[in-house]
Amino acid sequence: MADYYDVLEVSRSAGEKEIRQAFRKAAKKHHPDLNPGDKASEKRFKEVNEAYEVLSDADKRKKYDLYGDNWKHAGQFESRYGQGRSPFSSGRSGGSVDFGSDLLGGLGDLLGRSSGRAGRTAAVSRLEAPVTVTLEDAFSGSVHNLTISSYGGERRVEVTVPPGVDTGSTVRIAPDKETEVLIKVTVSPHRRFERKGADLYTEAQVPFEDAILGGETQVDSLTGRLHLKVPARSQNGQRIRLAGQGMPRLKDPKARGDLYVTLRPILPKEPTEEQIELLTELRRLRTEGT
Fold first, then answer.
1. Does 155 map to a domain?
2. CA distance 223 to 8
3. What does the pLDDT read at residue 263?
4. Strand 199-207 to strand 259-266: parallel, antiparallel, or no bridges (unpaired)?
5. Total domains, the chain
């Protein structure tokens, strides 16, 4: 597994701001929408999201610095070896281990497998797994099949991601009585919408004459195209609010945020002679009025 610091191309002493900037730069560079069909970029994009999820969280980063690739099992290790001590490194931060079959067996005991002694109850194994979803999935909810490591082996689990999740949201599932999985959600950037909480932001281009005289246009939303009334004398950058057309709220999916549309008047690229005459007359009227 690649080192998370190497993935984001930052030093181990990097601060939160540096890590955030590195993530945005890398995520934009390798985003699937900008690299259609590029499997290498798609893989890199997933690695970037996974690295940022860990290094942007102070607690996770601390565990990663101590346990390396085994940071998800920090709780089990510390309960057995003491807090801050790793059985997989010789006191060196960020150490990682290639698990062998014997070590996997020992890990199974650490994660709660019964030792076989009569009357002993297996502890609950708490695992973490990342999942990256699209904004559309975050809007409507989605179902994902993930592979998790449990008791030294791998298994497939089905995860239902509810509507309204955002980057940093956690979905808890219990595939059995002995396992609890915390699914850490990352929502991919969208090419048309910017998200802020439950609100969405987008832009709409409108003919300059509609911006001056008023008119109607259509704008995309996550549920389809909407009719938008353009007020007369609209300015470039003017923002119009469409109530209830944003993201569902996680705790109340029936309630939704708002969609904010920024108007961008456009000029004709190849104006006709008639349009040029009208614009000339408009300029004459403007200059005479000054």
1. yes
2. 34
3. 96
4. parallel
5. 2
